[in-house]
């Protein structure tokens, strides 16, 4: 069997996970108003609730699925999740009440929690020196999901707000078929770890990996950065519709532009950037770049200028894989699933907090009673959070971290 097929399957799985988020972005304002009524500002509130529910399921199930995969293998976890994902898209396609949408988002959050298992699979098959670049490939696949998801959501949305979900269900079924025939198991007796409920819950997993040297501060940075960067999925569709008057198709195109740019950075530019700058400087440079662009988006009034800024923002996506590689080298081989599950839960906590806070800020600064009309206020908050991440990272010298790892 072609050795590239398992990697292809993992990358497609990551693509479908991100499509599950990006697919709904362009049609979300119309979909919520279709099933619940109200204006864009109120739709943003419900959009925040749906995103929070999705992330809450990731938080609860990320470490559980990661730990299960450490014990029983990556293959069964990934295949079962794909089957459930197809069912979720069909549920969303039939949802005619806000409560059924909530149920669909709950199922989607559980299936997307396999991000940790898929990343652990990639860690299993990667040499230590290749992990950062291979994690970059996963990031690229995730970015491509932000291309295909919004494009499908925007273009197919012209035939109704439900059409994109049927297409996504078909893709999930096709990827299940590929995985069934092409995905070998990587968990052997050498790295198999006994399952423990104490370590399979988010708090227990966090406490377990938190004892590894150098991880506490980096996990905190990952958490805060996740809140800041989630401003795009939480706000962009509502922000672009209100600030620039964009249609769902145009919103899809703009999100696709971001996805293409992020994929290019992480699939093509990641290795040269790491070779030129090193992991520490890549993290610092990416954080500072994000801070500048987020601050600018807070005040931009031109849709054309916003489109120009999107590829620049994508350069900051080097932060995630570089941080992830540093942390992955710290963990033992039998802790990779646990570590990735913990990271997934930390990011999910950020995704729980981010949409609630950011949509509330957007609603407040666009409501009739606001003292200052500023749709870009959530981006300004994100800029401040990213600067905090940069200051925190500077407090943890890279040489000291390398000594702790050794």
Record keyword descriptors for this entry.
single chain; 406 residues; mainly alpha; Growth Hormone, Chain: A; 18 helices; 80% helix; globular
In words, what does this structure look like?
The structure is a single chain. This protein has one domain (4-179, 204-405): MFS general substrate transporter like domains (Growth Hormone, Chain: A, Up-down Bundle), CATH 1.20.1250. It is built from 18 helices and no strands. With 406 residues, the chain is mainly alpha-helical. The two termini are 37 Å apart. The mean pLDDT is 78. Helix 3 (40-72) packs antiparallel against helix 16, helix 4 packs antiparallel against helix 8 and helix 12 (231-243) packs parallel to helix 16 (336-366). It has helices at 4-22, 28-36, 40-72, 74-94, 98-112, 115-124, 131-156, 163-182, 197-200, 202-210, 215-229, 231-243, 248-297, 303-314, 319-330, 336-366, 377-394, 398-405. Helix content is 80%, strand content 0%.
